[in-house]
Design a protein that fits this description.
6-stranded mixed beta sheet
C-alpha cells in the first residue's frame, strides 16, 4: 500500500473507508434498468446532434446520469463515516446527530451542499440544535457543509416561525474548518482532496469487482445493429410506422 501522507488518518483506514464508499456506489446498469422509465429517444437525438456527439456517447451520458442519481447517499456516507476513524471521543451515532463528541460537547449535522436544505428542513435542524443547547448548556452545534460558498465558521442566522434566530453556539461551518477543528490541521481537508484520486484508483485497481459493468450497448445492438434505431424501437415499438424500422 502506498503512503498517502495524510497524517490525520492512517493509510489503512482511509483505504478501507474509500473502499466501503466505492462498494456503496451503483456500479452496474443493464438495458432493463436503463429503460425502466422509458428513455426519451427524441432527447437523445437532439443531444447527439446539437452537441456533436455520437449516439453512443449520448447513450453513455444518459447511463451515467441515471447511475449518478443514486450515488448522492454514497458521498454522504463518505463525509460522515470518515469520522469513525478519528478516536478522541469522535463518534458517528446510529441516531441523533451525524457526528458527535460528547467529551467536547460538540454536535454536528453534515450536508453535502449549501443549498440541499429547504426552509422547512433548515428550521427543523435549527430547532434540533436549540433543543440540544437546552439539554446540554456546554454544547456547541454545527451545520457543516462539504460544498460551501466560502470557507467559514459563522453564527448560523435563521428565521424560525417568522422570528430571526441566532446563537453563538449554533454555527454554520465549511468542511475545511471542521477538519481543522477535529484534526488540528488547517490543511487536513485539502490534503484529503489531493490524495483522494490516488486512493480511489488503488481501491478500484485492487478490486476487480468494483469496476463499472455497463451492458446497455451490448443488449441494444442485439435488438438492432444501429444504436439509434434500437433506441427508437425500445420506446416506440408499438407506435404506428415504427415496425418498418425492423424491415
Amino acid at each position: 500500500m502506498r503512503n498517502y501522507n495524510l497524517g490525520f488518518i492512517s493509510n489503512e483506514d482511509i483505504y478501507k473507508h474509500v473502499k466501503n464508499t466505492v462498494e456503496s456506489y451503483r456500479r452496474e446498469i443493464t438495458l432493463h434498468q436503463f429503460n425502466e422509465n422509458i428513455v426519451d429517444p427524441i432527447k437523445l437525438t437532439f443531444d447527439s446532434k446539437v452537441y456533436g456527439k455520437t449516439i453512443h456517447q449520448a447513450i453513455e451520458d444518459e447511463c451515467f446520469r441515471q447511475i449518478d442519481k443514486s450515488n448522492g447517499n454514497s458521498i454522504g456516507y463518505f463525509h460522515q463515516n470518515l469520522f469513525k476513524y478519528v478516536g478522541n471521543g469522535w463518534v458517528v451515532p446510529k441516531s441523533g446527530f451525524d457526528v458527535e463528541n460528547k467529551r467536547l460537547h460538540i454536535f454536528v449535522e453534515l450536508k453535502n451542499k449549501h443549498n440541499t436544505m429547504n426552509s422547512a428542513s433548515s428550521q427543523k435542524t435549527y430547532m434540533k440544535m436549540q433543543a440540544k443547547l437546552l439539554e446540554d448548556d456546554e454544547a456547541t452545534c454545527y451545520l457543516v457543509e462539504a460544498i460551501s460558498k466560502k470557507s467559514k465558521d459563522d453564527i448560523w442566522k435563521l428565521t424560525v416561525d417568522k422570528k430571526p434566530c441566532s446563537h453563538k453556539r449554533i454555527r454554520r461551518m465549511s468542511m475545511d474548518k471542521f477538519y481543522e477543528l477535529v484534526f488540528g490541521d488547517c490543511k487536513a481537508f485539502y490534503k484529503l482532496c489531493i490524495a483522494l484520486p490516488n486512493i480511489i484508483e488503488d481501491v478500484v485497481s485492487d478490486n476487480e469487482g468494483l469496476a463499472l459493468k455497463n451492458t446497455v450497448y451490448e443488449e441494444l445492438t442485439r435488438e438492432h445493429a444501429d444504436l439509434l434505431t434500437a433506441i427508437y424501437l425500445l420506446a416506440f415499438s408499438t407506435y404506428e410506422g415504427f415496425n418498418e424500422l425492423n424491415d
